[in-house]
Design goal:
This protein is an alpha+beta fold and about 80 residues long. It contains three helices and four strands. The protein has a four-stranded antiparallel β-sheet with strand order 1-2-4-3. Strand 3 and strand 4 form a beta hairpin. The two termini are about 15 Å apart. InterPro entries: Glu_permease_IIB, PTrfase_EIIB_Cys, PTS_Glucose_EIICBA, PTS_IIB_1. Keywords: Kinase, Membrane, Phosphotransferase system, Sugar transport, Transferase, Transmembrane, Transmembrane helix, Transport. Its EC number is 2.7.1.-.
Length: about 80
């Protein structure tokens, strides 16, 4: 249950479900394309264990480490609901 809450917090930190266009990842980073970059809450994302948040245009990279694939899959599942 803790992970579910954490993933909901990540979605909120990215500006909510409606703000997320694409979710992807590489080895250590969650890569997200957003509709509105100004809705990102870096402090909230860092509270979920992110080591950093990089924003460029409508793209955001949130650094989580090697377990990022699990986070990506759970967020995709949340967005599909």
């Amino acid at each position: 249950m803790r992970l579910l809450k954490e993933h909901q917090t990540i979605v909120a930190g990215l500006g909510g479900k409606d703000n997320i266009e694409i979710v992807d990842c590489c080895a250590t980073r969650l890569r997200v394309t957003l509709h509105q970059n100004d809705k990102v809450d870096k402090v909230l994302l860092e509270s979920t264990g992110a080591k950093g948040v990089i924003q460029q245009g409508t793209g955001v990279q949130v650094i989580y480490g090697p377990h990022v694939t699990v986070i990506k899959n759970e967020i995709e599942e949340l967005l599909g609901d």
